[in-house]
Amino acid sequence: MELATLRLGGRHDGPHVLLTGGVHGDEFEPMAALRTLAVRLAPHEIRGRITIVPVVNEPAFRLGQRVGDDGLDLARTCPGRPDGSTTEQIAHALANLIRAVDAYIDLHTGGVKLSVSPLTGYMLHPVPAVLNRQRRMACAFGLPIVWGTDPSLEGRSLSVARDANVPAIYAEYLGGGGCDPNGVSAYVQGCLNVLADLHLIDGTLARPTDEPLVIEDQRAGSGHMQVQHPAPSDGLFEPAVTLGQQVRQGEFLGTLSDVLGHEVIPIKADRTGLVLVLRGFARVSAGESLGVVLETDPPPQIASLGAATVKCQP
Ligand SMILES: [Zn+2]
After folding, report:
1. For residue 130, what are the contacts with CB-CB under 8 A and spacing of at least 6?
2. To 10 degrees, the CA torsion angle through 117, 120, 124, 130?
3. What residue ranges of the chain are covered by domains with CATH 2.40.50.100?
4. Alpha helix (H) ranges present in 104-240?
5. For 22-35, how does the pLDDT look when each residue is reduced to its tens digit (9 = 90+)?
6. Architecture of domain 6-217 in CATH?
7. What's the 283 CA to ligand 1 centre distance in angstroms?
8. What's the gap in Å between 24 CA and the centre of ligand 1?
9. pLDDT tens digits for 135-165?
């Protein structure tokens, strides 16, 4: 399996960075941003090498879906197998690219169904040098939320990077199945910021957010966005909150109703915090996540990790 790849630089020594989009086939801003970035970067000015895969999961993109026709989520399939199904083969090819680089950025959105507050995230890597580099990359990217989470999650592109000690971050920017120019430009600028911080290119950081909200949460399963607030049944979801809003535990996130609206199930926040993810596509199936609340008032496990010491320098 060969992934369609753009390769830049290589004339001057420096680190090798991998940038990917389209791990999910219905996340379009990353694809547009990475192609724009490839045009914007002057190859002779790059100190090191940049490998760009704008659409990792081409079969899913052709279907306009999150996953390909084997039904496997590429972000749960890494590192894959060379002799497996299409998604397993793509995962294997992606894993080989990740293991070969010095730093990695994986761009996502909420796809057709979800909307995510713009953020950069990373795993709370056990190797301090890797963790610190990831924090630095996530801060440099410049989105309003920086989120460090459970390092034990498997199957992700970042799981491969973790095992290879390659500093890696991912980013999320809204969703809905469009190609929002604001998202594209935020991603272009974010990647340029990180490349400048890694000294691959010249330039000063232009950040939309100088003081992001930084949350590090090492509890098991933190960072797994598809498990919070599962829909208790099939139905129509009507949100009562907006992305980024603060909610208290027990407050309404919205309602789920049947065809005639006779059965209306209130969906209540199971924790206090910021609405990080909200279901956008209103028709839902039982078990699908309706939203994610990010705890901003950290419980003791988070505080003991020293999250307060993580500062993004303006
Ligand atoms: Zn994704």
Report:
1. 165, 166, 167
2. 180
3. 235-295
4. 128-141, 157-163, 181-197
5. 999 999 999 999 99
6. 3-Layer(aba) Sandwich (3.40)
7. 20
8. 5
9. 999 999 999 999 999 999 999 999 999 999 9
